[in-house]
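Need residues for this backbone.
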């Protein structure tokens, strides 16, 4: 008699091994078993976009893994309000504008690393950052 095993599915494809490892590390931190495939091939053949790194999870963990990878840190704090629209529906995240800043580009170019700014509040109603 055959044992019933959970099916393994591809949850996401990544063009970069770095992005794939960040996602895998996040799932590992939450205790969701996962693994990567095609990581070495994608690294060796970076010029061709045909090879993608694949993130695999058990089918039973699909919803939880998707929620973990795409969650935003929602703030449930009634003391902090948006100064523009007075909404309390806020999220705490890195500023979206820092990727466009000249200083941010210089940090990446000269130091080779990504150094994000401090986290800010973003209003979910009017998209105002403060």
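Answer:
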């Amino acid at each position: 008699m055959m044992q019933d095993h959970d099916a393994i599915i591809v949850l996401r494809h990544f063009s970069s091994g770095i992005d794939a490892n960040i996602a895998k590390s996040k799932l590992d931190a939450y205790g969701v078993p996962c693994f990567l495939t095609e990581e070495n091939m994608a690294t060796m053949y970076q010029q061709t976009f045909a090879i993608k790194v694949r993130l695999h999870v058990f089918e039973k963990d699909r919803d939880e893994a998707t929620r973990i990878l795409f969650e935003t840190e929602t703030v449930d704090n009634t003391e902090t309000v948006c100064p523009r629209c007075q909404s309390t529906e806020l999220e705490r995240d890195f500023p979206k504008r820092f990727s466009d800043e000249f200083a941010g580009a210089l940090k990446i170019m000269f130091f080779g690393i990504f150094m994000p700014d401090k986290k800010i509040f973003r209003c979910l109603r009017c998209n105002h950052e403060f």
